[in-house]
Design a protein that fits this description.
With about 240 residues, the protein is α/β, with parallel strands linked by helices. Helices cover about 30% and strands about 20% of the residues. The chain has a five-stranded parallel sheet. The longest helix is centred in the last third of the chain and has 19 residues. Bound molecules: adenine (ADE). Adenine binds next to strand 5 and helix 5.
Length: about 240
Amino acid sequence: MRIDIVTIFPEFFGVLDVSLLGRARRESLLDLHVHDLRDWTHDRHRTVDDTPYGGGAGMVMRPEPWGEAFDALLGDDDADAVVVLPSPAGVRFTQPLARELAHERRLVFACGRYEGIDARVAQHVAGRARVMEISLGDYVLNGGEVASMAMIEAIGRLVPGVVGNPESLVEESHEAGLLEHPSYTKPQVWRGLEVPEVLRSGNHAAIASWRREQAVERTRRVRPDLLPPDLADTV
Ligand code: ADE
């Protein structure tokens, strides 16, 4: 998968060289490119923002550098590329959406700052690629960088080969519509707290059933909104 990121803070994305995504990048499973939006400005101050038409607080990102960035990054054969515009006004990012996006050939993340990007940019790019405004959650960040990083990590780890043991992707939170069960490792007793006996029993059916009960109980307690309807009214 190829991923391009356009930002005025390329240094934010240094972490892409670390850990699983760093290895995926070195092994060419993920072809990641970070671009500085200011490279597509032409004035001495490398200006990317201006005051909003209609008034109001804050600044809006001007369309010209974004237009040039997309001219440079999207070719005639990129109509299938997905341009992600991180925004608190977008559709919510979820595990199913991460799974969908993990199948794409090419993603371009356009990180807005300030009060966002001039709305004509999304309109214009929609004629050349698929555009999705996506929100990380119901809160406001200072810009799209942290949201893009979170999305790239969630999507990237679902690309085949990125996570060494694909089985570890199956049981985790949000995959079965439930939060994940608690996990334990050695030592058996730590500061007086013991690992639940069933996990040491070697009885795989009992372990699977205990884990499922724990997952259901945790989901009911913490995130009842996620509980599948068939479990919603069981005790
Ligand atoms: N930019 C600012 N806030 C955001 C959010 N919640 N999700 C995605 N991008 C954002």
